[in-house]
Design brief:
466 residues; mainly beta; Tachylectin-2, Chain A; eleven-stranded antiparallel β-sheet; 2 helices; 32 strands; EC 3.2.1.26; glycosidase; GH32_Enzymes; ConA-like_dom_sf
Length: 466
């Protein structure tokens, strides 16, 4: 029987209401700041605000309440996603202000305003008046009314803004603007890839890890395949081998292909990530632990008044052999480990009884499987590797209608699993492949049975009050 809450201790979430995309992720004035899409009155209202948390270590977070509200005509229907820019001595925020006009509109080609709005802060908590920078009229006529989610950076004394877009003929598109002062922007590049990336490209990003440049984002409308693109919408990146955003569109075509699009996370619940930099130069990624319009739900958390959260903070590294980015939990989570759990050997299988939040590491050499069950032996969830395929499969209602996700991987050498009450994150081979999913155990304890793993170390976690 479940007596514990499903609310998280180590993941950012709203104590009540709805959470989605991380926004304005940055390090400023001695603290990390994460803003996020927040609907505090959900399910009665889905109107989006920006929630705000801050931290000195990315582990212990202070809830700073609502930072931005939809309080001007240009964002009256939602403070949508955006970015933080901190390179010029203060925190500067850029976001999309959403406006939907009443009437018989499709809100794709008619009836919607997508406004780029600016404000700034000297201390990271108190913000200036909002300034309108761009409206629909500033975007190319070839684009529809879905142009959003600004990412801003500085390069060679110029400022650049990257916006995701949907063309009038329903093609995923990318818009780049440039500016000398961050206030007056001119179109720098319009690019609609020939690759079949669906009808919309949102949550755009442009970043560099270990000297490797990449374009990140979330295509909507890609065709699902057996071992990838299994979610309703995708989230991933294109490594730019010999190109940058300054290359011609023809040159970009070499890198912006369906084959070159790599997903950050192969689980049920990952979307709209942001990449930001620590003072030491490390690149960190955090995502929304959810997916829009998914055919599954979080009914059990909604019973407690909250829906969705953000993921763990993951450090990005580049694997030059596989030519992919790996993502792995930041070191600070290991400091939460408290008691090492006893691992029993039964019928050549290792078995451990875990708390509702835990951290474990396991090593394998070939075919391997982990079964998560309740204390009465009822099986909830199976993670397995066989014949070059990893599979995460729910066997009952603890997945709230989630079924199966798969990913190809040559071999499994090690697995790291972090569970936080009702969210599980599985890292294969140091983050070569990751699966994130909500998981709602029926018991306060979880029994994990390991087959094909020769070493298992599992830990309970120090409780913290987020």
């Amino acid at each position: 029987m479940r007596n514990k809450t499903y609310k998280h201790m180590y993941h950012i979430f709203g104590k009540k209401g709805w959470v989605n995309d991380p926004n304005g992720s940055c390090y400023y004035d001695g603290k990390y700041h994460i803003f996020y899409q927040y609907a505090p009155d959900y399910p009665e209202s889905a109107l989006k605000y920006w929630g705000h948390v801050s931290s000195e270590d990315m582990i212990h977070w202070e809830d700073n309440g609502i930072a931005l509200r939809p309080d001007i005509p240009q964002d009256k229907d939602g403070v949508y996603s955006g970015t933080a820019f901190c390179d010029d001595g203060k925190m500067e925020l850029f976001y999309t202000g959403n406006v939907k006009h009443p009437g018989n509109h499709d809100y794709i080609l008619t009836g919607r305003e997508q406004n780029v709005i600016y404000l700034s802060s000297d201390d990271g908590y108190n913000f200036s008046e909002k300034e309108l920078l761009m409206t629909n009229e500033d975007f190319p006529k070839s684009m529809g009314l879905h142009v959003r989610d600004p990412k801003v950076w500085k390069e060679n004394d110029k400022y650049y803004m990257f916006l995701g877009a949907r063309s009038v003929d329903d093609k995923a598109s990318m818009l780049f603007f440039e500016s000398d002062d961050k206030k007056n922007w001119q179109l720098y590049k319009e690019y609609t890839p020939s690759a079949q990336l669906g009808y919309m490209f949102e949550c755009p990003d442009y970043f560099e890890v270990d000297g490797v440049k990449a374009i990140g984002g979330c295509p909507q409308g890609m065709d699902s395949q057996e071992y990838k693109f299994m979610n309703m919408y995708q989230s991933g990146y294109f490594i730019l081998n010999e190109t940058t955003i300054h290359s011609s569109n023809e040159e970009l075509e070499k890198d912006i292909t369906v084959e070159n699009f790599k997903e950050w996370d192969m689980g049920f619940d990952f979307y709209a990530p942001q990449v930001f930099t620590t003072p030491e130069g490390k690149k960190i990624i955090i995502g929304w632990a959810g997916v829009p319009d998914a055919p599954y739900d979080n009914a059990k958390s909604l019973e407690e008044g909250f829906e969705h959260s953000l993921t763990l903070f993951r450090e990005i590294s580049y694997d030059s052999d596989k030519k992919i980015f790996k993502t792995y939990p930041i070191k600070g989570y290991e400091e939460l480990r408290k008691e090492e759990k006893e691992v029993l050997l039964t019928d050549d299988k290792k078995k451990v009884t875990l708390d509702s939040s835990f951290d474990l590491e396991a090593k394998a050499t070939g075919k391997a499987q982990i079964v998560f069950s309740d204390t009465e032996g009822n099986k909830d969830l199976v993670f397995a590797f066989k014949d070059g395929v990893c599979e995460l499969k729910f066997l009952n209602e603890t997945g709230c209608k989630r079924d199966v996700r798969r990913a190809k991987v040559e071999k499994v050498e090690n697995v790291r699993i972090f569970m936080d009450q009702s969210i599980i994150e599985i890292y294969v081979n140091g983050g070569e492949v990751v699966f994130t999913s909500r998981y709602y155990p029926n018991d306060d304890n979880i029994v994990a049975t390991f087959d094909g793993f020769y070493e298992v170390n599992a830990y309970s976690l120090e409780e913290i009050d987020y």
